[in-house]
Amino acid sequence: MKKFFETLTNIWNIKELRERVILTLTLLLVYRFGSHVALPGIDTAQLSELTNKTSGGGLLDILNAFTGGAFAKASVFALGIMPYISASIVVQLMGLAIPYLQKLQNEGESGRKTINQITRWLTIGICIVQAPAYLWGLKQLGVPESAFVKGQGLDFIIPSVIILVTGTIVAMWLGEKITDKGIGNGISLLIMVGIIARLPQAFMQEIASRVTENNGGWMVILIEVIVWFVVILLSIMLVMAVRQIGVQYARRTATGGYEEKNVMGGARQFIPLKLNSSGVMPIIFAQAIMFVPGLLAGLSDSETAQGVKTAFSNMFGFWYNLVFALLIIIFTYFYTAIMVPTSKMADDLKRSQGFIPGVRPGTETADYLDKIMSLITFPGSLFLVCIAVLPALANNAGIQQAWAMFYGGTSLLIMVGVAIDTMQQVNSYLLNRHYDGLMKTGKNRKVSA
């Protein structure tokens, strides 16, 4: 604990890092404040049915979690940052097939700026489609007519669409500003604080269920918290686990006189291949697909179709989680193939005069890396499946649904991944400061505020 407080002191003493942390916290507070500001013309007291629909698990629950509850509150940030994430994924996928985007990806910083601009415009386009769909869906999700103070005419729809689109643009700006001027990845931090915002309420509901209703008491609460910390440790292992591939880099050094030959030397390094290179995307994709069987089955009145609809409407049921697990494995392989271009890695390695010992540069290196990725992706996908289905297991074990959702799945992996990334950035600042001190005096320099 003493070392923890010393680290906080060191963070505060470094002026640049202190300013970045303060800016990050300020912008996150702005985002959280905006998530509680409702759209004009909506009576928030009549949104209880919408809250119930978005807390029952599934895609709506994920959307509500990603927006920090703004989706269920009909807030100006109701669309959240998800349109920007969707646009980013679309641009990534298009980059595999469109030569223009491939060219931009190879142009360095200028190409990256152009891709970011394309992503922003695509985000606005997605918002223009999603905003009217959201407003129309409010009534379908149980919001009564009386909740719309001025009705649902154009005088409500048009201003609300403009506000929702503007809200996403502001959220996108906040995220980019945190990334540029703050600490951590801004977009990811916006999602994380939205998820964490629901944690205290979920935990208090679980305490009320166990203690007030005499359903196990504080001992069960303690066991649940211990198990939760164990799951967090396992999630950290999943995020951090890598397979290191040894790489030898050739170098030439000329010494001595004119007739002395060049001496070949080398530096040994590693290519870190992540056990889970796809992150939480397989879970998100699989969660979206899981709604399709229920929707298709709902078109028929037969007994079999109704049975399928019932099975796929219960996210804590056996058949739902079995199909869910299979889809996660499939999407893990699919997204890993997109995110880890082994052919490009092999080409870059060859250009930098690097090689894997015992493997020829070029095609054989690409095949070797692809084989290694296939071997480590399978256990990685199984580990991801275990984390994804843990909320269902926790709920079936008697844990309240809201608290069970934090035992795994998308929410937990996002919190762990973003926390690790932010901590690494803070740590790099501290290490760099320490490195400067060693270069000057051999000790950490005292920094004026």
What can you tell me about this protein's structure?
The protein is mainly α. Among the domains are: 2-197, Preprotein translocase SecY subunit (Orthogonal Bundle); 275-388, no CATH class. Helix content is 67%, strand content 6%. It contains 19 helices and three strands. The protein has helices spanning 2-13, 15-34, 48-53, 59-66, 82-94, 99-105, 109-140, 154-181, 186-196, 199-212, 217-240, 281-289, 291-297, 303-311, 318-339, 342-351, 363-396, 401-404, 409-440; strands spanning 242-253, 263-274, 354-355. The protein has a three-stranded antiparallel beta sheet. The relative contact order is 0.11. The model is unreliable at 252-266 and 435-449 (pLDDT under 50).
Tell the overall outline: globular
Q: CATH class of the domain at 2-197, anyone?
A: Mainly Alpha
Helix content: 55-70%
Oligomerization status of the protein chains: single chain
Q: Low-confidence parts, pLDDT < 50 over ≥5 residues?
A: 252-266, 435-449
Rg is: 25 Å
Features:
449 residues, mainly alpha, Preprotein translocase SecY subunit, three-stranded antiparallel sheet, 19 helices, 67% helix, globular, disordered C terminus, transmembrane helix, membrane, SecY
Could you write a compact summary of the structure shown?
Pfam families: SecY. By secondary structure, the protein is mostly helical.
List the helices and strands and how they pair.
Layout lengths: L1 H12 L1 H20 L13 H6 L5 H8 L15 H13 L4 H7 L3 H32 L13 H28 L4 H11 L2 H14 L4 H24 L1 E12 L9 E12 L6 H9 L1 H7 L5 H9 L6 H22 L2 H10 L2 E2 L7 H34 L4 H4 L4 H32 L9
Antiparallel strand pairs: 1-2, 1-3
Helix pairs in contact: 2-8, 2-9, 5-7, 6-7, 7-8, 8-9, 9-19, 10-11, 11-19, 12-15, 13-14, 15-17, 16-17
